[in-house]
Specification:
This protein has 12 helices and 12 strands. By secondary structure, the protein is α/β, with parallel strands linked by helices. It folds into 2 domains: 2-163 and 307-379, Rossmann fold, CATH 3.40.50; 167-302, no CATH class. The chain has an 8-stranded mixed β-sheet, sandwiched between helices. The longest helix has 29 residues, at 202-230. It starts with a strand and ends with a helix.
Length: 381
């Protein structure tokens, strides 16, 4: 018989005020849902993570619990709001969850990074095995070594891309040259201009990819300059001198990956389009990826050069076994993402699994979601 339990997990302080809700801050807790089969008394917990998505109701939890493991969906302190998200604090949240599961008596923990959780899970495992990070990219202290992160026994990249900064840059619209005027566009770098495609030529794609990185780096340089400039805005308040340490800003054009329209690029079984509908509309739609951020969050979460949650970089440092699962019809995590993550693992305790016909969320195909759960449950043994 399956049962569900809400887990209150003590939250490790992050050192800065980056959560709007006073209720959430003062509770000192993050939350997770645990599903298990009470007739089996599982000794292994499978923990599914993402930086900001609410995985308390994750579609795989019941299916995994039915296969004999305890299945846990985590909500980090940034659940539902990634505008001020600091990836290093998400590591603290995963560490707190794994510690809590150990204290509950689970002998083994398998860490599953789903979707945008892939880069985060890889970074967590690398830092738990060998902690090196002492500060965020903005320079704020974060003592991962002193926190005592507990490594997972195995990790899974499930329908995952390598990290938010990587996939964000792959979708960053290089036709935008003025950050305040998204519709004043450089036609030579506009994937939505019919003169360029689809299909897109090799020379165009090469220029396009370099221009995407250049735009990311321009925003990064600007954000770093603004953080430094804020130190000069000192005012006296309640008898002490204070200065703002962060600012929000808007980024337009974040769903402009040529693969969304040209199926010959990174070929797979996917349909043209994005997770948020038409690429042109999704490119500007607030609900799509990373339009509102803060200076410090940009460096930690979206910066191509500074964000550490990059599975391509973290996985070579991971000693634990690694499974990479991808769907052949996924329009968000592409086959090249999966293969490159698999190849990044530096040992032979690894496995690459393709689920034929599966899109990012297994829409209309619960049978394929069950196949993923079969693989994860078997891998967890």
């Amino acid at each position: 018989m399956l049962s569900r339990e809400l887990l209150p997990i003590p939250m490790t302080p992050g050192g800065r005020l980056d959560i709007n809700s006073g209720v959430a801050r003062m509770s000192g807790k993050i939350w997770a849902t645990l599903w298990k089969n009470d007739l089996r008394s599982p000794s292994t917990a499978v923990l599914i993570v993402h930086p900001a998505s609410n995985f308390i109701g994750h579609y795989a939890l019941e299916e995994l619990a039915a296969r004999g493991v305890a299945a846990v969906g985590l909500a980090t302190r940034y659940v539902g709001n990634d505008s001020a998200l600091i990836m290093e604090n998400c590591l603290l949240d995963i560490g707190a969850a794994i510690r809590h599961l150990r204290e509950l008596g689970y002998q083994r923990v398998v860490l599953v990074g789903n979707s945008g959780g892939g880069g985060l899970a890889a970074l967590y495992q690398a830092q738990a095995e060998n902690p090196t990070i002492t500060h965020t990219p903005a320079g704020d202290p974060v003592d991962l070594a002193g926190t005592g992160l507990i490594p997972a026994d195995k990790i899974v990249m499930a329908m995952a891309h390598p990290g938010r900064a990587v996939v964000y840059t792959e979708g960053l619209d290089p036709a935008i040259t003025d950050e305040q005027r998204p519709f004043d566009r450089d036609a030579s770098l506009d994937m939505f201009d019919p003169a360029n495609g689809p299909a897109y030529g090799e020379e165009f794609v090469e220029r396009y990819r370099l221009a995407q990185i250049d735009r990311n780096r321009r925003i990064t340089a600007w954000a770093s300059e603004q953080i430094e400039a804020l130190r000069g805005y000192v005012r006296e308040s309640a008898g002490e001198k204070v200065a703002p340490d962060d600012l929000p800003f808007v980024v337009h054009g974040t769903a402009a990956d040529p693969r969304f329209l040209d199926l010959t690029l990174d070929p797979s079984d996917r349909r043209a389009g994005t997770l948020w509908g038409s690429p042109w509309a999704a490119n500007f739609r607030p609900a799509s990826l990373g339009h509102l951020t803060s200076l410090r969050s940009w460096l930690s979460q979206w910066s191509y050069d500074h964000s550490r949650a990059n599975a391509y970089v973290a996985l070579p440092e991971v000693q634990a076994p690694v499974m990479v699962i991808y769907g052949s019809a996924d329009c968000a995590a592409f086959p090249s993402h999966a293969r490159t993550m698999y190849e990044a693992v530096a040992h032979d305790r690894r496995e690459l699994v393709e689920i034929k016909g599966a899109d990012h969320y297994f829409q209309g195909r619960p049978d394929l979601a069950r196949i993923m759960c079969d693989h994860i449950a078997e891998w967890s043994k």
